[in-house]
Amino acid sequence: MKAMIFAAGRGERMRPLTDTCPKPLLKVRGRPLITWHVLNLVRAGLVDIVINHSHLGHMIEEELGDGSRYGARIVYSHEPTPLETAGGIANALHLLGDEPFLAVSGDIYAPYFDFSQALEALPDNDAVGQPIPFDQRDIAWLYLTPNPWHNPTGDFALDMYTLANDGDPKWNFAGIGVYRPDMFDGIKAGEFLKFGPLMRKFIEQKRVGGEIYHGPWVNVGTVEQLEELNAPMAKRAGA
What we know:
Elements: E1 3-7, H1 17-20, E2 27-28, E3 31-32, H2 33-43, E4 48-53, H3 57-64, E5 73-78, H4 84-96, E6 101-105, E7 108-109, E8 140-145, E9 156-159, E10 162-164, E11 170-179, H5 195-204, E12 208-212, E13 218-219, H6 223-238
Parallel strand pairs: 1-4, 1-6, 4-5, 8-12
Antiparallel strand pairs: 2-3, 6-11, 7-13, 8-11, 9-10, 9-11
GO molecular function, one term: nucleotidyltransferase activity
Protein name: Nucleotidyltransferase family protein
Domain Nucleotidyl transferase: 2-126
């Protein structure tokens, strides 16, 4: 399975930091956000990685290179103008191939998320307790978290392992998922397209599965959040 890291966002709420540094290169606990993902993907055996970028994208390429020093094989999909999530995936499909792939937002911090879960989308849930792989029932498989303060009403409900647009409670989309390439059929390379409406269409068709992740997870969206994550290191440095 290949993996994609979304790194094309401008990071408006992180300005002025992102005026001179792409958001995925901002450091959390001594390491760029995107590097946490690369290392965790490689640890899970997902070594073929596609990264899309736009604003200051050359800096991401300079930092990560071809990925060999991490044990990865990294290729890049440049977007002269950011295409949003669905558009960015469609633009990179020629690099992702014909099999299901994992995708993760480059601006989340989830240091203990085990990406090998993507290889067994429904672990230990069949009649004889054997792993059930991501299969033809689903066009996508999303990971959800308890709702953070900035998204108190959540995004999707979960009925057993099937997502629903409506229901109670709703859970926060973690920015991590597994997708089939045919989910993006009909979207042209270079087309601007948001992720939410496309995903909700397939959820309405009951073609999206998912599960809840309860480990540490932060969407690093503001300077204050970044400073809070780095506070333990700052305290140690000042000790």
